[in-house]
Amino acid sequence: MNKIISIDDVMEHIHDGMTIMVGGFMGVGTPEIFINAILDKGIKDLTIIANDTGLPDRGIGRLVVEKRLKKVIASHIGLNPETGKQMNDKVLEVELVPQGTLAERIRCGGHGLGGVLTPTGIGTLVEENKEKIVVNGIAYLLELPLRAELALIRGSIVDKVGNVFYNASTRNFNPLMAMAADKVIVGAQRIVEVKEIDPNNVMTPGILVDYIVGGEKP
Amino acid sequence: MSINAKEIIARRIAKELKDGDVVNLGIGLPTMVANFLPKGVQVVLQSENGFVGLGNTPDKGLEDVDVVNAGAQFVTINDGAAYFDSAMSFGIIRGGHVDVTVLGALEVDENGSLANYMIPGKMIPGMGGAMDLVSGAKKVIIGMIHSAKGNPKILKECTLPLTAVCGVDLIVTEMAVIEVTENGLVLKELAPGININDILRETDAHLTIDDNLKTMDIL
C-alpha cells in the first residue's frame, strides 16, 4: 500500500469542525505544511488538541490568528497573546490542561485505557468536575482519555511504510498523538526507503501511520 | 536594580543544588541559576519538552532548529544527554526522578501553596508543566522578586488560582531566604543590607525568625 500522498490529497481528509491533534512544542516538531494547507483551504471551526498554541507566526498560532479554531485543549497559551485575547472575547474556547496530564490523557486515548490517576491539579481549578480517588491514602484526580479524528504529526525521517524517527526535541507529543487518532498523517522532513531507518531507531511504528506527505522544512 | 536583584536570587539558589542533582529550571529568572553553580557542582538539567542534559546557549550561527528548551529558545545538549517524548518527560517529573525544580511565582503562602499560572481576566498563559513539577519534584524552590513594587507576594493565603497546594519547600528572594515548614514560614537568611523590618513591610504572612538567622551568601 502506497502511503505517500500529496498535500492536496491530504486535504480530502481535513474538514470544517474536525477534532485534530497536532504535534509539536512551541512550534518545534509541528508539521507546518498542514498548517499552511489548512490556512490556504479556508478550513475552520476546528478543535485542536496540542501542547500549546505556538507563537503568532509559528505552528498552531497561525490558525489562532486567522480565527480557524473553535476550541483548543492545551497546556500553555502564553507565547501567543492572540489566544488569550480570543478567550477573553469569548470567541475561542480554551481548556487548559497540565502538560503531564495532557500527555497522559492522550496516551490513555491511544493505549486503550479508561483513564489515569494523577496527583497533579489536586486543590486547584483543574479538579473541578473531576472524580477524586484515594489510593493508599493519597488523593488523585481521575483524568479521562483524549482521542481525535485526525492526528497531524511531524517526522524528521520517515520510511515508505511510515516508520518515523523524530530528531532531538521534535519528538515531544508526536508519538503519543500517533496512537490516539482515527487517522494519522505524518509530515516528513525526509522520506527514505524501507530499511534505511534501523528498526531499533523507529519511534513510531509504521502500522500507526496512514499517510505520509513530504516537504517539511528543517 | 532589577537585573541585580535577579542575579542575587539566582546566585543564592545555585548554592542549594548538589552535585549530581537532576534539576528542572523554569523559564526566565530560574534559568539564570545554571550560570552560578558552585565549583565542583555539576547538575543534570531536565527540559520538560523532552530531554535531560540541557547545555548552554549555542554560539551565533551554530543553532540547531531541533534543539530548543521549553521556552522555544535555542539551546545545546551536553555529553550524556537523552531525548524522550512528553509522556516520559512528565513520568520523570511526576515519578520523583527530578531532585529540584526552580520556579517563579506570583504568590506564595504560609502553607507553601503557590500561584503562578494565571491572573483571571488579565493574564492566562496556562500552567504548562508547572503543576506537574510542583507535585512531582522532590524539592520545590521558588525564586522571585520579594514583592510587586512593595505589594506583598508572600501571603497568609494565596488569592490567585493555585498552581499547587502545599508544594513549596523554599522561597528565595533578593531580600531573604524563607523555608516552608510544618509550622509555617521560617525566615532563615537576610540579604546584605536588609533588616527584619524591611522584610516585614513587604511580607503579608506570619514569619518565624530563625534562631540562627544568617546573612545570605550571594557571592
TrEMBL record, chain A:
<keyword id="KW-0808">Transferase</keyword>
<protein>
    <submittedName>
        <fullName>3-oxoacid CoA-transferase subunit A</fullName>
    </submittedName>
</protein>
<dbReference type="InterPro" id="IPR012792">
    <property type="entry name" value="3-oxoacid_CoA-transf_A"/>
</dbReference>
<dbReference type="InterPro" id="IPR037171">
    <property type="entry name" value="NagB/RpiA_transferase-like"/>
</dbReference>
<comment type="similarity">
    <text>Belongs to the 3-oxoacid CoA-transferase subunit A family.</text>
</comment>
<dbReference type="Pfam" id="PF01144">
    <property type="entry name" value="CoA_trans"/>
</dbReference>
<dbReference type="InterPro" id="IPR004165">
    <property type="entry name" value="CoA_trans_fam_I"/>
</dbReference>
<dbReference type="InterPro" id="IPR004163">
    <property type="entry name" value="CoA_transf_BS"/>
</dbReference>
<dbReference type="GO" id="GO:0008410">
    <property type="term" value="F:CoA-transferase activity"/>
</dbReference>
Automatic annotation (TrEMBL), chain B:
<dbReference type="InterPro" id="IPR012791">
    <property type="entry name" value="3-oxoacid_CoA-transf_B"/>
</dbReference>
<keyword id="KW-0808">Transferase</keyword>
<comment type="similarity">
    <text>Belongs to the 3-oxoacid CoA-transferase subunit B family.</text>
</comment>
<dbReference type="InterPro" id="IPR037171">
    <property type="entry name" value="NagB/RpiA_transferase-like"/>
</dbReference>
<dbReference type="InterPro" id="IPR004165">
    <property type="entry name" value="CoA_trans_fam_I"/>
</dbReference>
<dbReference type="InterPro" id="IPR004164">
    <property type="entry name" value="CoA_transf_AS"/>
</dbReference>
<dbReference type="GO" id="GO:0008410">
    <property type="term" value="F:CoA-transferase activity"/>
</dbReference>
<protein>
    <submittedName>
        <fullName>3-oxoacid CoA-transferase subunit B</fullName>
    </submittedName>
</protein>
<dbReference type="Pfam" id="PF01144">
    <property type="entry name" value="CoA_trans"/>
</dbReference>
